[in-house]
Amino acid sequence: MDWGGWPVSRILILFVGVEFLLLFVQVTLFHSRQNFRHWSMWIPVVATPIFGVLSLLLVFFNVSGLRTVLTVCLAIGVVAGMYGTFLHYRGVGKRVGGYALRNFMTGPPVILPGLVSGVSILGLIALFWR
Predict the structure, then answer these.
(1) How far apart are CA 129 and CA 72, in angstroms?
(2) Cα 66 to Cα 30: distance, rounded to the nearest angstrom
């Protein structure tokens, strides 16, 4: 499939790639601040730059094998983001006072892993846009 210019799907994939690289910076800062206490903290630190680079490569080299690899990675990203949201929500509850508003404000950011899922879904929509 030839891109034939810059259709919306190509622009969305470009946005998804940049967004994953920005998420990588934020997630790395947050998880290193917590000294990677749980093994799962490494998942977004390793995955988001891979997703970002693959997305940006697809913008410039539209190869079917690359599309397939990115599709699998983004599907994994959806699941990983949901798992992260669960872990962050559970982490808020483990703080003194449980699920109090102050713990949502100072504890693990419950919304951030959802961004990984959301950007992954946006990437999947762009890949299968007709």
Answers:
(1) 16
(2) 30
DSSP string, 47-114: HHHHHHHHHHHHHH---HHHHHHHHHHHHHHHHHHHHHHHHHHHHHHTSTTSS-HHHHHHSS-SSHHH
Measured CA distances, 89 to 2, 94, 115 (Å): 43, 9, 14
Q: Which residues touch 77 (CB under 8 Å, ≥6 apart)? A: 47, 51, 116, 117, 119, 120, 123
pLDDT digit string (tens) for the chain, length 130 residues: 555 667 889 999 999 999 999 999 999 999 999 999 999 999 999 999 999 999 999 999 989 999 999 999 999 999 999 999 999 999 999 999 999 999 999 999 999 999 999 999 999 999 998 7
For residues 36 and 42, the answer to whether their CB atoms sit within 8 Å is yes
